[in-house]
Design brief:
Bound molecules: adenosine-5'-triphosphate, magnesium ion
Oligomer: single chain
Mean pLDDT: 96
Structural class: mainly alpha
Helix content: 55-70%
Distance between the termini: 19 Å
Strand content: under 5%
Length: about 220
């Protein structure tokens, strides 16, 4: 069981990392509207090292994989996103002590990450940050756990997308986007869209891995 859990955790972290690398330009463009246009660059510089140093990360279970990832992100990503993403992975990893976590334990790890982001970013829901996509997505993940992991992730991704699109109309209260005040209402938050794109990518990768394992039967 813990072998399977580790494979799943690897799939999730690798997919998040690859998504950050693949969307460097797109995420920068989103941040350039009211920010300074470095969000995609920052994420990609951290996650590309996670991928290139994968074999030397030295993890043994899902929790340590997240913690080792956190160390790379904290070291490599500058500006605001380094501490935010580093703290999120560190807190999630610290929460996952079970080498074969249950769905409820995975949700608890997300909640720990969210608390870490709130503290580190001095922010909360409604400030127009990545939390405005992440929190509704995790709520949906928790509500859908009974449907099985694949469906729960898929539904969380749909919720993340809706919530990220809904950041258009909100005023940014944190980060560089907040310097533009009312003008920030006209665009979506870059970090929130980043969360949606990552959930969608993880949902797709998870489904593909299940098809591979079961030969197409669900
Ligand atoms: N204080 C904060 N707490 C949580 N998330 C934040 C905070 N500030 C910004 N964010 C998120 O980070 C995204 C931007 O990341 P980025 O790394 O570009 O930071 P920034 O605000 O442009 O600051 P800097 O460029 O100086 O690092 C935003 O779209 C938002 O989702
Ligand atoms: Mg920026």
């Amino acid at each position: 069981m813990s072998e399977e859990a580790l494979r799943q955790a690897e799939l999730v972290v690798r997919t998040i990392a690859q998504t950050a690398v693949d969307n460097e330009t797109y995420f920068c463009e989103l941040d350039a509207v009211v920010g300074d246009g470095d969000f995609g660059y920052s994420l990609a510089r951290g996650f590309e090292i996670v991928l290139s140093d994968w074999d030397e990360l030295g993890y043994t279970d899902p929790g340590s994989l997240l913690k080792k990832t956190a160390i790379v992100l904290t070291k490599r990503i500058g500006g605001t996103s380094g501490p935010i993403w580093g703290t999120a992975f560190l807190r999630a990893g610290g929460s996952l002590s079970n080498p074969a976590p249950t769905g409820e334990e995975v949700v608890a790890a997300f909640r720990a990450a969210i608390e870490g982001i709130k503290q580190r970013g001095n922010t909360d829901l409604g400030d127009k940050t990545l939390l405005d996509a992440l929190v509704p997505a995790v709520d949906e993940l928790e509500a859908s756990l009974g449907e099985g992991a694949s469906t729960a992730i898929e539904r969380a991704a749909v919720k993340a997308r809706e919530a990220a699109e809904a950041t258009k109309g909100m005023v940014a209260m944190r980060g560089r986007a907040s310097y533009t005040g009312e003008r920030s209402r006209d665009s979506v938050d870059a970090g929130a869209i980043g969360i949606a794109v990552m959930f969608e990518a993880v949902g797709k990768a998870w489904q593909e891995s299940e098809v591979e394992r079961t030969g197409g039967a669900k």
